[in-house]
Amino acid sequence: MPFRITQESLSRTTLSNIKLNYKKMQEIQEKLSSGKQINRPSDDPSGARKVLGLRTEDLQVQQFLDNTETAKEQINYTSNTLESIQEIFTKIKGLTIQAGNDTLGQSDRKIIANELDELLESVLQNANTDNNGRYIFSGTETLTSAFTATRDSNGNISSVSYNGNNEEIKYQIGPDTFIQVNLPGGKLFQDNKAFSTLVSLRDSLKASTFDSTAFSNLRNTLDTATNALSTEITRFGAKANRLEITTNSLENSQTALKELISYTEDADVASLIMDLKHQENVLQSSLKTGAMVIQPTLLDFLR
Amino acid sequence: MASDLQIGLSGILTAQRAMLVASHNISNANTKGYTRQSSLLAARNPMITTAGTIGQGVELVKIIRQKDDYLNSRLRDISSSIGSASIKSQYLRELETVFNETSDSSLNNALASFFKGINDLSQNPENMSIRSTFLEKANTLTDTFRRIVNELDQMKTFIKQSIESKVSDINTLTTNIANINKQIAALKIKGIESNDLLDKREALLHDLSKLTNITVNTQNNGMVDVMTPGGALVSGTSATNLTFDIDTSGTLSITDAEKVSKYTFKTGEIKALQDFYNTTIVNYDKKFDNLASGIIKDVNRIHGEGVGLSGGFASIKSINSVSSATAALNAAGLTIAPSSGDMYITVINTSTGEVTKNKISVNVATNSLTDFKNAINGTVSGTAGNITASVVDNKLQIGATTGYKFNFSYALDPNPGALGTSTASVSGVYSGQSNDTYTFKALGSGTIGTTSGLQIEVKNSSGTVVATLDVGSTYTAGNTLNVANGVSVSFSGGTISSGNTLDLNVINDSDTTNLLAALGINSFFSGTDASNIAVDTNISNDVSLIAASTGKVGNNTNALRLAALQDNTGAINNTTFADYLHQIASSLGEEASNAYKSEESYTAIETSLENRRDEISGVSVDEELVNLIRFQQAYQASAKYISIVNGLMDRLLSTL
After folding, report:
1. Cβ pair A34, A28 in contact under 8 A
2. Alpha-carbon separation of residue B555 from B127, B128, B130, B409, B520 (angstroms)
3. Largest Cα–Cα distance in chain A?
4. Which helix (H) or strand (E) is B577 found in, with range?
5. Cβ atoms within 10 A of the Cβ of B185, count?
6. Which positions in chain A touch B583 (Cβ < 8 Å)?
7. What is the rounded CA–CA span in Å between residue A23 and residue A19?
8. SS3 of B546, please?
9. Out of A7, A140, A193, whose CB is closest to B554?
10. Which ipTM score applies to this complex?
11. Which residues of A touch B93 (CB under 8 A)?
12. Going by C-beta distance under 8 Å and a sequence separation of 6 or more, which residues neighbour residue B51?
């Protein structure tokens, strides 16, 4: 039996090749129109897995960035409040130096005492600062104001009690990396006797006989509290720096991740267009040759 | 002379018949499965004379069907393989669309956004709108799980219908084949080759082989038997009717009409559908169930130990029931297996804020739910007497007396007692690896904050000194001292004497039994797998119950623990939840891409086999036209010969 080619097999071969060409063109066009090399996992199973993993990582880095931003906001807020309190303490210190002067009379001291009382009120007000409804010095009792003042019959503060706790609030800003964003007021104000010292200072100025030794002892205690405040301000400044560095490094890794995702997933438009052009040529020629091959039979030449 | 005319006549008749064969071929040039026929011509038996034999013209001996049985059987095999491959790639493509893992509405995104919700919650645990947003994200996750399972179920139904119609196709085909067998045999007895019937049967066999792989045995009487590995589909003139059956375990099998004997197929569309129904979908279903149950277990385990905004419960009821309240807990039909260990129940006096921690030890191999209930009542009544447990409908119910609330938090006991006459207050979050007990021991005697050099030593349960605290003249009573692992303590004014001790339980897991998750107490998710995972109704009715804290409203310790689940590389199959999901997606992608490739390659093989079959059996119109012309010329020549013989006759007659 000689090698026979029939019309049927000619048209079958032509047709199946044309189909194949269209399919390849469709694949290229899908990649071009979506801009992606991988449109479903079966396009490149191992690449797809890599992309999925990278995207999860990218989302997480984004999450850490968001967390860092919120942490920054909280830390700056606390830091600003601490600075305001520090300013008040500086004023108080000035007043106490003035009051410690032996040449002052009782009426002068009373004036200073009144001024000190106002400053005490504003320290309390600052210590009860809330950030969007959350009291910043209450530990985790964030919905309770940090300090409550007990007042005497004249409405003057006689003592201040702490309503919060010493619990820390931490935010996650990296894998296994946390940063404390709050400052429990118990440790800062109460442990350093800030309020009780201010109350005592005021009262000793109001007292009929001025005890200068006790007064200077109280001033020393006040200095301890002021120093603790400064230490915290420095620590919060350092925290803000750390967050800034964290943001930078997170942004760097996000850029790297995005590049990697794009490298794995995105279509190489230039080479795809080349492929498409090539495929177009192949399709054109297979259509043309198909038309030439299928048409003629012996009938065309028989009369 | 008469025989001369006979020779001419035989030439005319034979040429005519050969032309019939050629034109039959031409008219069937595009008939599917048509086998080219050719005429076999031979010289008629000669006349024997003394001079030798004289030819008596031509005759059409046989109309031959140009076929190659081997090629036909190869084509049937490849058609079965294409049947399998095309079904496989078609349904895997659909499955890929269902999972949709590279798109935005994927489970991958739902999972990531669930964890984002927890992260946001950890930053604002007291914010109700953030809690509600997180609830919505959790709902999206559970909805996505259920949507996928639901779509898999629908796919199964669709496949079942498809199998049903394809089985009935088989029955129609086999009945037709048996009928044609009968006609062929009837003709064969008369010695007639029924070429076109054979073609028809060949086409039916080809269609049948697409549905399932078959072996065809030809009998001497011209009939064919159609065999499958499971048994005969056609034997002679009888065809076996098939149907399908789904057993109690949900496995679909093809059986005879009486559902007695099973037919197992090797390839073909039905086999592929069956595999998809019995294996592929079931496997993916299982993987999603694994993922969902892993998430349910881990989230509930952590959530159960946390506390919502109210800081504790007045009463709580478990959502999972045991099979029997008197059966040992490890044999009580709980989906999450409990293990022997301790559970801490914290009872809080709501007016004074006083906290009592109660430890309940459970042996799951011997204790039943009733024993556990009794243990709670025994322990807690013994110390504080302010909560009562009961078993209702095989579920555990715990209620607090008025003025008290309780929780299962791992927060440290803030008031563990006194050392000498000095009261200790504890704060912080224990960050150690496992539960431990810290023992505070006075190293000397004196007054806190006054006596110079006064120290308190802290040892862990294995006797290692973890801290030595200075509480002498350098210490101000009530100030906070760091102990170790995140634990801080302060001592009130008072006196201690050398040798005074105070124990503090430091715990990071308040339920080593996993009973909270197993029984569904203070659970975040309800359900056991991907088909029924849902946010617990208590939580969706009241988002303040979401346990972000270990006690106070602004505490986010538990939310951070929940968020850490995202990175737990031991969560499921030694990898993270997200990575497990990526594995599912990529293994599906792998499977699908293999199916597309094999469909492509089988189709290429089929095309080449069909071309080879055409080389033998296909009609070439050109060839037939040449034959037509050949036989037309033969006809004309024979006619001419008759006319010559006729001329000779005329001449002879006129001469006479």
Report:
1. no
2. 12, 14, 15, 12, 23
3. 143
4. helix B577-617
5. 17
6. 49
7. 6
8. coil
9. A140
10. 0.84
11. 42
12. none
Q: Tell me which residue in B429, B585, B610 faces A41 most closely, judged by beta carbons.
A: B585
Name the region of A193 (left: φ>0; alpha: ψ -120 to 50; beta: rest). left
Burial (CB < 10 A; 0-12, 13-18, 19+), residue B296, is: buried
Q: What is the tens place of the pLDDT at every residue in B472-515?
A: 888 888 888 889 888 989 898 889 999 899 999 898 888 999 99
Inter-chain CB proximity A298 and B589 less than 8 Å: no
Chain A environment of B429 (Cβ under 8 Å): 167-168
- pLDDT tens per residue across span B287-331: 999 999 999 999 999 999 999 998 899 999 999 999 999 999 999
Contact A229, A123 (CB under 8 A): no
Alpha carbons A65 and B371: distance in angstroms, whole number: 49
Residues of B with CB below 8 A from A175's CB?
Answer: 567
Determine the Cα–Cα distance for residues B371 and B513; give it in Å rounded to an integer: 14
d(CA B302, CA B651): 122
Q: If you search the block for the tokens 């203070």, which residue do you land on?
A: B522
Both tokens assigned to B451? 């006596």
- Copy the structure tokens of residue B501: 């001790």
CA-based nearest distance A141→chain B, Å: 6
Q: Which two tokens stand for residue B122?
A: 């950890």
Residue in chain B closest to A137 (alpha carbons) equals B554
| Terminal CA-CA length for chain A | 29
pLDDT tens figures, A200-234: 999 988 888 888 888 889 999 999 999 999 999 99
Query: Is A63:B560 a contact under the CB 8 Å cutoff?
Result: no
The residues with which B426 forms a beta bridge, in sequence order, are B489
Q: Indicate which of A6, A37, A145 best probes the interface with B, i.e. most B CBs within 10 Å of its own CB.
A: A6
Pairing label, strands B262-263, B252-256: antiparallel
Phi and psi, residue B305, nearest 5°: -85, -5
Interval B240-256 mean pLDDT: 91
- Amino acid letter, residue B165: S
Q: Answer for the pair B477, B501: CB distance below 8 angstroms, yes or no.
A: no
Report which secondary-structure segment, H or E, holds B235: strand B231-235
**At B567, is the secondary structure helix, strand, or coil?**
helix
A52 neighbourhood in chain B, CB within 8 Å: 101-102, 108, 578, 581-582, 585-586
**Which tens digit of pLDDT belongs to each residue from B151-176?**
999 999 999 999 999 999 999 999 99
DSSP output for B121-155: HHH-TT-HHHHHHHHHHHHHHHHHHHHHHHHHHHH
**Contact: B586, A134; criterion CB under 8 Å:** no
Q: d(Cα B95, Cα B149) in Å, to the nearest integer?
A: 11
**Using a CB-CB distance cutoff of 8 angstroms, which residues of chain B are in contact with residue A172?**
119, 122, 560, 563-564
Q: Which position has the token pair 């880095």?
A: A61
Cβ(A299)–Cβ(B621) under 8 Å?
Answer: yes
Do the chains contact at B585 and A48, CB–CB below 8 Å? yes
Task: For B388-439, give the DSSP string.
Answer: EEEEETTEEEEEEPTTEEEE------S--EEETTEEEEEEE----SS-EEEE
Q: What is the DSSP string of chain A?
A: ------HHHHHHHHHHHHHHHHHHHHHHHHHHHHTBS-SSGGGSHHHHHHHHHHHHHHHHHHHHHHHHHHHHHHHHHHHHHHHHHHHHHHHHHHHHHHHT-TT--HHHHHHHHHHHHHHHHHHHHHHT-EETTEETTSTT-TTS-SEEEEE-TTS-EEEEEE-S-----EEEEETTEEEE----HIIIIITTTHHHHHHHHHHHHHSSS--HHHHHHHHHHHHHHHHHHHHHHHHHHHHHHHHHHHHHHHHHHHHHHHHHHHHHHB--HHHHHHHHHHHHHHHHHHHHHHHHHHS--GGGG--
Task: Please tell me which of the candidates A12, A49, A165 has its beta carbon nearest to residue B585.
Answer: A49
